[in-house]
Known about the structure:
The protein has one domain: Orthogonal Bundle (Arc Repressor Mutant, subunit A). The protein is elongated. Strand 2 and strand 3 (108-116) form a beta hairpin. The longest helix has 25 residues, at 24-48. A 3-stranded antiparallel beta sheet has the order 1-3-2. The protein has helices at residues 5-16, 24-48, 53-65, 73-80, 84-96, 118-138, 144-160; strands spanning 71-72, 100-105, 108-116. The chain is mostly helical.
Amino acid sequence: MARDAVDLIVEQWARARPDLDATPVxxxxxxxxxxxxxxxxxxxxxxxxxxxxxxxxVLGTLRRAGPPDGMTAGxxxxxxxxxxxxxxxxLDRLVAKGYVTRDVDPANRRTVIxxxxxxxxxxxxxxxAAHLDNSRxxxxxxxxxxxxxxxxxxxxxxxxxxxEASDPRAVGDA
Length: 174
C-alpha cells in the first residue's frame, strides 16, 4: 500500500512520543491536507474566471438562494461564517466588477440587499459548472460508493460538532 505524508507524521509521533496515541492525525491530518490541496485546485479554476475563492462563494450563495433575488449583507456574512468586514471587502470587489448590486431595502432603510447582476448570474452559472467538473476530477480516485460513504461519514462528524444546516434567508438581520 502506498504511503502518504500523514503516514510519516504518525510514525514520527510514535517514535518521538510512544506514550501518545496519534491515530486522530490519520483522519484530521488528511482532512487538513486535502482541504489545502482542494483549495489550491479551486483557486486555480476560479482565477480563470477572474474570481477569488471568497468572491465565488458570495456569487454562489446568491445564485443558489433562489428567488426573490438578493440577500442581506448580514445574511451573507452569517452564511459564510466570515466577518462583516470580510464580506464588505468581497462585495466592494464584486460591485466594482459589475457582478452584484447593493441597494437599500425599501421596507427597511437600515438593511442593504445584495443581488446578482445579469453579468454576475452568467458568470456564476459558468463558474459553478466548471467547479463541479473540477470537483469530480479531484474525487475521481473514489468510486461513487466510496464518495457516498465518505460524505455520510463526514456529515456525521460535522453534525456531532454542531454544524447543522440553516437557510441563510431564515436568519433575520439584527
